[in-house]
Amino acid sequence: MQDGPAGPALRIIAGLTIVAWGLQMLFWPLEYAALVAGFVPARFVMDVPALDIIPRFLTPLSATLVHGGFLHLLMNLLTFWYCGKLVEHVLGSGRLVTLYVVGAYGSAGLQYLVGSDQPMIGASGAISAVVGAYAMLFSTSEAKSWGPFSAESMRALWLLAGWVGVQWLIGIASAGSGYSVAIAAHIGGFIAGLVLAKPLLYRASS
Q: What's the rounded Cα separation, in Å, for the pair 94 and 185?
């Protein structure tokens, strides 16, 4: 595992996220930014013209640029920097971007499917895809095949089970805090990372 300098995709995405958060803090109240740029499931079942400043199909991406506060931003970027640096080194810059974008849409998709009515903001869903790929690429845990499931599939299932457990604990810890955690979004992004890690690796090495 090589620990070198951060790649260009990581630096650009992190830089854009920081700049967007700074502009948000200066010019837009969080509630307004969350409704306009966040992923709002209700926009996909009804027309809300007042929110159509950003096309609804782009809001899974624009939501990654909106954060609830400095700690929210910091935790996301620290996770992204640690996992993304190694993932970009192995997969390449373009594939890290692919992973991030698919993770953003995967997280929004699962958030929508569970019937959430809360606006989703933050990059944690997209970053969860990077974490999922990191876990799949660098995990040293061994798994045995079981029935129709290959050893690699079982390892992915064990990693997913661990991630779901972590998210469940986060949900318990945040209950009553007044801060809503998009648990489904984190799981959706992580699944995208697990699924894409090896195909992207094969394409990177071919």
A: 23
Backbone region of residue 196 per phi and psi (left: phi > 0; alpha: psi in -120 to 50; beta: other values): alpha
Close Cβ partners of 123 (under 8 Å, ≥ 6 residues apart): 17, 64, 65, 67, 76, 77, 80, 104
Tens-place pLDDT, residues 52-85: 889 999 999 999 999 988 999 999 999 999 999 9
Phi first, then psi: give them for residue 72, nearest 5 degrees.
-60, -45
Which segments of 38-150 does DSSP mark as H helices, in order? 59-62, 70-91, 93-113, 124-138
Q: For residue range 7-17, what is the model confidence (pLDDT) as tens digits?
A: 999 999 999 99
Catalytically active residues, by annotation: 124, 186
Domains of the chain (ranges, CATH numbers): 8-205 (1.20.1540.10)
Residue 43 identity: R
